Amino acid sequence: MTSRGKETSVTGTGLRNLSLSIKPPWVRRGQEAQLHCQYEMEGAPLYSVKWYRGTLEFYRYSPFENPPAKIFPFTGIKVDGSLSL
Questions:
Q1: Which of 11, 20, 32, 34 gets the highest tally of CB atoms within 10 A of its CB?
Q2: Full residue range of the structural domain in which residue 51 is found
């Protein structure tokens, strides 16, 4: 699923009001983009949030792991860990 800079909503069991936004929708190497994921869990615990480019994961947030945020090396993508929760 891609959002192309627009918000996308998906509904599932335990997950409500999921919205993804990527701004700007297209960037050149070296430029910045902001990725946002908002959700409501309807009382269920969050297992993880993962971000991928293609089939390769570059960021994961798992609140029950230590550390909860993991950044995976990916050529052309730099994640600012201080802004990523």
A1: 20
A2: 14-71
Q: Is residue 45 part of a domain?
A: yes
pLDDT for residue 13: 60
Task: For residues 42 and 49, give the distance between their C-alpha atoms in angstroms, rounded to a whole number.
Answer: 16
User: What's the predicted TM-score (pTM) here?
Assistant: 0.73
Of 56, 61, 57, 65, nearest to 83 (Cα)?
61
Average pLDDT over residues 67-81: 91
**Nearest 5°: phi and psi at 64?**
-95, 0
Residue 81 lies in a domain: no
Task: Tell me phi and psi for residue 82, to 5 degrees.
Answer: -75, -15
